[in-house]
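Chapter review: from sequence to fold.
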Amino acid sequence: MAPDQRVSLEQLAASLAAIGDADAAEQVSAASASLPAAEFWDEDTVVPFQDSRFKILGRLGGGGVGQTFKVVEIETDSDERFGTYVAKLINDEADGKTVIRAYKLARAYTTHPNLSAIHAIAAEWEADRFASLLKWVEGIPLADLTGVMPIHAEDVGERSAECLALHWLTELRGALSELHRLTVH
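The C-alpha cell string follows.
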C-alpha cells in the first residue's frame, strides 16, 4: 500500500477509541508520541521542529555527516499542508554544532536565485532532530536524468547535454561565487 493511502497512527488510535478499545488506543497513541531513530524514519514519520510538525515525504540522501529529507509542514491539529522543505539532520554532536553555526552565518546570504534559502535553524544540536530547514526548490533530481540528458536538453531548448551541463555549472558557479563574496570578503 502506498504511504499516502495508509491510515495515520492518530487516526488508528481514534478509531480504536471509538470502538471502545481504550487500551489499544492508548498503546497506539504512545507509539505515535515516541520518535524512532532517524535511520528508521519513513513516509509516515512526523517530526516536531520549532513548534511545528513536519511529515517526511522521502529520504533524499545520507552519509557520514548526516541525512537529508524532503518534508512538508503540517498543521498541529490536522494534516493540512503548508510548505515543502529540505530537512537536514546531523549525526554527530560536534559536527552538528559546527553545521548549525555555519548555517547561522550563511543564512542572510542565501538569497541568490540558485541557492536554497535557509528557512529555519535549530537553536542547538539534538540527536535524531533536524538541524535546519531549507526551502524546497522544484526540479528534477540529477539521478533521474541518468541516460536521458540529451532528451532533457532538447526538452528545455539547449543544443546538447553538454551545453545544458555547462549552463548549470555556470549558474552554480555564480551562486557559490556570490555566497563566497558575501561571507568571506
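Two observations follow directly from the output. The first strand starts at residue 46 and ends at 49. Helices lie at 9-18, 22-33, 93-106, 149-155, 161-184.
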